[in-house]
Amino acid sequence: QVQLVESGGGLAQPGGSLRLSCAVSGILFSLYDMGWYRQLPGSEREWVASISTSHRASYADSVSGRFTISRYNEKSTVYLQMNDLKPDDTAVYYCTTLVQNFWGQGTQVIVSE
To answer: Is 102 a residue whose pLDDT tops 90?
Structure first.
């Protein structure tokens, strides 16, 4: 059974930081490109960042320079370090495999004073 479990969400002030984690099981993690998406109620999921099996990272323009995606294959975990958070970053954040379409349950991030 494939499982993706996100953690690390919560409340942060504008300009603050959070680090999201996504622990993956049931697949050979090192063989999968991984991604983070986010979603607001009533909106479509928005791509945030991706990391390939060779650790090449890509970012949406809205988060480039503020967010960093990384992976630790030995722990089957992908991370999203979020710095200089803005209220517009408020959303539920999901991790996903970029093939075979496995998704986690999401973790809520709220950026507010």
So the answer is: yes
